[in-house]
Amino acid sequence: MDVKNFFDFHSYIYNMVRRNRLAKEKGFAPCSCTGIGYLEGLLSEMRTQKAFVCVADVCEESVSRHGGGWFKRRVFTVFLLARYDTRSKDDYRAKLSLCRELFRQMHSRFIVDASWLQSELCYLAVDEIRSRELGGQFLNGCTGLYFMLAIDEPTDLQYKSEEWNAEDE
Question: CB within 8 A of 90, min separation 6: which ones?
């Protein structure tokens, strides 16, 4: 059975973080987690890192038809988090602003990358990316935001009789 290899979103984000000047300057470390309730990648590095770009390793998926072809949509969640001094409201605001700016820069890169990804039949939904800011009480000493990005890729849904037992028909 041939399995389609879909776009490696985690590597894409990790490489983006490593190449972004602001992320490098401010010490953002890429990591993964299972979702908002399970930030294990971040927690394991909390003592040694001061900022994180954490990609959830689970995503929402759907399949739909566009123009006669079938596409799988995967929606990924990315957390941008920065540690702050819990005794300073100014530091809290500064770190939240830092996360907002990094998100803006990443969005601008998504727009540029969407063009070359189309040639690979991978479509980033860059026209509207929703984000949600996290309060300072979300994770003690950390603030930031998360956003969700959708990627559409063609998928093969043609019926193949060899995949089915004859007695089932």
Answer: none
